[in-house]
Amino acid sequence: MTFRKILLAAGLSLAASAASASTVTLAGGGTTDDCDLANLTVSVACDGDFSTANPGGNVAGGDLDGLFALDGQILTGWSLLDQIGSVDSSGTQVSAGGLFEFTTTDRESGSWSLINPFAFAANKLYIFTLKGANDQAAYVMDGATLLGDWSNGDLLTKKFNIPQLSNVRLFEIETAVIPVPAAGFMLLLGLGGLAAVRRRKSAS
Q1: Cα(first)–Cα(last) distance of the chain, in Å?
Q2: What is the pLDDT along the chain (204 residues), one digit of tens a residue?
Q3: Residues 117 and 195 placed together within one structural domain of the fold
Q4: Burial 64-81 (b: 16+ CB within 10 A, else e)
Q5: Looking at the structure, do residues 69 and 17 belong to the same domain, yes or no?
Q6: CB-based burial, 133-172: b 16+ in 10 Å, e otherwise
Q7: Which residue range forms the structural domain that includes residue 77?
Q8: Which of 52, 106, 160, 189 has the smallest set of CB atoms within 10 Å of its CB?
């Protein structure tokens, strides 16, 4: 195979990789469990039917372990990044660490945004958890969008009431997956080196 054909094949391979980027699902498959992705835009997977180790308490990282999978690999090891410990109806509230804000006047719906100095890391996934009364829902973020809307529609008590939002938490987990852009750069860098060696041989 000529070097030109190798470059063409590599380009096609890279395009195919880009088309099949990593996918987040529930551990058992699918993207929703007793929840609606529209209740926190723009999430890519959500779970509104999980319990916490401390019933009635706030969601902890361990409560999220085993709920979601990345390309079929179950995700464990979530850690708390930031939170709004007690949501009120005053308007815009900034999280304790200053990484995000939620806006609401009724604690039933509103908007959210990730703010400076927050920045998505290519090798991490992020989850927002919403809590009201004794129920909670978790939403995996798309890793790119910095703002959207939210609703408490996935918070449902045993008496089938929808409670007002009381707590919001942002979690993160480091993944071992190399993002497609980074993988592509590494591939092109290697091919560039081969091309340089080939030119030197031709010149001599």
Answers
A1: 22
A2: 554 444 444 444 444 443 346 899 999 999 999 999 999 999 999 999 899 999 889 999 999 999 999 999 999 999 999 999 999 999 999 999 999 999 999 999 999 999 999 999 999 999 999 999 989 999 999 999 999 999 999 998 655 688 999 999 999 999 975 444 444 544 454 555 555 545 555 555
A3: no
A4: beebbbbeeeebeebebb
A5: no
A6: bebbbbbbbbeeeeebebbbbbbbeeeeeebebbbbbbbb
A7: 23-176
A8: 160
